[in-house]
Amino acid sequence: FFFDAAMVFFFVSILALLALGCHADSHTNIYGEALAKCEGAHANNMAGSGEYGACTFRSYDRGAHQVCVGALPADFSYNTGQGRWSDEFEGKNWCICIWAYANWVTNQHTDLQIKCDAISSSVLDSDFAASHFRMGTRNYLDAVRNMCATCEAQAPTDKARKELEKTCAKWEATQ
């Protein structure tokens, strides 16, 4: 096959630009700011550990590990139907599944110590995330409301709080 060098360069450049655009979006938090690291999260690709210490959106991550928890509670994975994988990580920061967050806050009736500046924007603004909230509980809207209330209280600035309020209002409008 004959490939024109200019054509190959053009296609590679387009793909690189597209990848950069996706990468930038995956590193935005729910306040529309730079995504903070989920401090203490392992910097590898194990399930739940995020990517390089951050709870980034990754389309290939079927579990949607995008909610940063400041301290995994005792029996977290057991009480969300995942076995006992989290026992060795109790009290540590971790990127958990969106559905597991929804399951925990609606069924365990206790809050998780979420770190909102380290939660990916895609958790509240994508159809992908909505489907994962719904997988966790039929009362998924209660979980969204819980996250919105917790994160409004943690908002670092008025601008960040207002950005989050707009996003959360969209959830209410769709119900």
Largest sheet: 2 strands, antiparallel
Low-confidence stretches: 5-24, 41-47
CATH topology: Phenylalanyl-tRNA Synthetase, Chain B, domain 1
In N-to-C order, the SSE pattern is HEHEHHHHH
Top-tier CATH class: Alpha Beta
CATH architecture: 2-Layer Sandwich
Shape: globular
Structural class: mainly alpha
Total count of domains: 1
Approximate strand percentage: 5-15%
Query: How many helical elements?
Result: 7
As laid out across the biggest beta sheet, the strand order is 1-2
Mean pLDDT: 76
Rounded to an integer in angstroms, the radius of gyration calculated over CA atoms is 18 Å
N/C terminus separation: 55 Å
Q: Helix fraction?
A: 40-55%
Tell me the total number of β-strands: 2
